[in-house]
């Protein structure tokens, strides 16, 4: 449920998403092996890793878009069966795909309205109003709602896709490289929006990102994917002291020092 | 959890007290509750207090419904106050209120165009399209000229690949169709001619018809459907993914890399397929007439030699390269017109096939008139 204002500060954080022993492979090549991973309610978790290590594959496996060979995935306390997540589950999470994946035949406003039209019996003017609310909340202008996806810039596509991901006021938000391709100021605004949404709605956010500024500014916990599993998870300080060549280079290399200070 | 809306009048204030979970799942019901109870004109002259202290859960949709009430009341000139929001809810409500507080045009409705403007648009776009086809054809001619002067620019691998997919792989279906149609024509011919005791002339009928018209038309329609759509979809999705832009930015010309190999391969392949189709329909006719009209293959061949000359076959085959150019140009032109959306890809692929088949038949008609005029 969104927002429980009277959360005890020291309560044991509840697990909203969990994988255990997850193994995913394609055509004899194993991408993820025996991967254990959990996400706690209300946190912003970043998945990082070198290109091609299976960060996107992990989210796609959780979403049921690629089959897994072994292990279990559970979300909202329920195990996801072999036939993939139930529609009830899918209504409770929103997904921002890396390249937006907006329906190219629909306008932005129609894209945002799709989940509301499909799953809720709302009056038409309320659907319009709520679509406009989502569109403006993610930092687009209301008039952008009439544009077709092919008319949008890269940053606008990300925002429009976020608006669609937020259409059903989800509990859990998956973001695949939300700030890639945005200018630094837009990226910071995007980060701020995500923090605000988490703080006000109690959203849980799982993001795949390479943006060191995002990691620095808004992320609660980081999971590093390497060697087909979660190599290490923890906050930024854990990452900085962890002894592994890639993690060291990533969090203590020159780019990281520039961002983390 | 259910959601409810308490409404009371407290002195000179009207108090809205939402309760339960004000979330999107309840939005339809809450929308009705809010509309029926909280219109500002019902509550003569009072101010409004919205007390969110007893809401269990509030999301953007619930916040929107409340903010909308505020907007209606303040538009009606009343004072609106909020109470009971903790910090997080204040942030949420402020974000939502900021949006609701602004005026915005409603989203465009998809209008059904009126018939006059639709006709006008169709005429204009036809004129545009004709010009566009001519430009593509011109660019193609220039490209051919350039390639003749610089033969190393010709992409043999690409041509061979296209010949394989448009020609070799089309053969089974083209041969089968021609065999069947040849058989049907022969059967109909023999059946109608037997009343005059002239079933043997079914050989003339099917021989001339198949070689001059049928083989070419069947092949061209099949290729327009198979390869025309494939070419359009291929070029169209390359445009959608900016691959054609990438080619251009590298200094490569889409005309030479994509269009020319496809045109050349169809020009080579279509006459060959037409010849094969002609042979298949003759085979179908031989077989049918043997079984159905008792005309032995030997008798068929004997009659066939009298009925058909090499020029009959040439009349059919001559048309094939023209049809190939028409199909390839239309398919490439449609592919290059694809815009960003998947809908546009579908529309242009359909247009490619429809226009390709239409033009093939029209041009075949023109050839028939031309041949008649020169006694060919």
Automatic annotation (TrEMBL), chain A:
Pfam families (alphabetical): ABC_tran
Q: What is the scientific name of the source organism?
A: Faunimonas pinastri
Q: What is this protein called?
A: Phospholipid/cholesterol/gamma-HCH transport system ATP-binding protein
**Molecular function terms from GO:** ATP binding; ATP hydrolysis activity
Gene3D superfamilies in UniProt: P-loop containing nucleotide triphosphate hydrolases
Key words, A-Z: ATP-binding, Nucleotide-binding, Transport
| Domain of life per record | Bacteria
Keyword Nucleotide-binding annotated: yes
Family as reported in the entry's similarity comment: Belongs to the ABC transporter superfamily.
Instruction: Name residues in a coiled coil.
Output: none
Q: Where would I find the ABC transporter domain in this sequence?
A: 17-252
InterPro entries, alphabetized: AAA+_ATPase, ABC_transporter-like_ATP-bd, ABC_transporter-like_CS, P-loop_NTPase
The record's section on PANTHER family has: PROTEIN TRIGALACTOSYLDIACYLGLYCEROL 3, CHLOROPLASTIC (PTHR43023:SF3)
Automatic annotation (TrEMBL), chain B:
Q: Which domain of life is it from?
A: Bacteria
**SUPFAM superfamilies with a match to the protein in the record:** SpoIIaa-like
Under the GO molecular function aspect, what terms does this record hold? phospholipid transporter activity
Q: Which residues form the STAS domain?
A: 3-126
Task: Please provide the record's keywords in A-Z order.
Answer: Membrane, Transmembrane, Transmembrane helix
The name this protein goes by in its record: Phospholipid/cholesterol/gamma-HCH transport system permease protein
Q: Name one GO cellular component term.
A: ATP-binding cassette (ABC) transporter complex
Q: Where are the transmembrane segments?
A: 168-186, 198-225, 246-269, 275-295, 307-331, 351-374
Matches recorded under InterPro entries: MlaB-like_STAS, Permease_MalE, STAS_dom, STAS_dom_sf
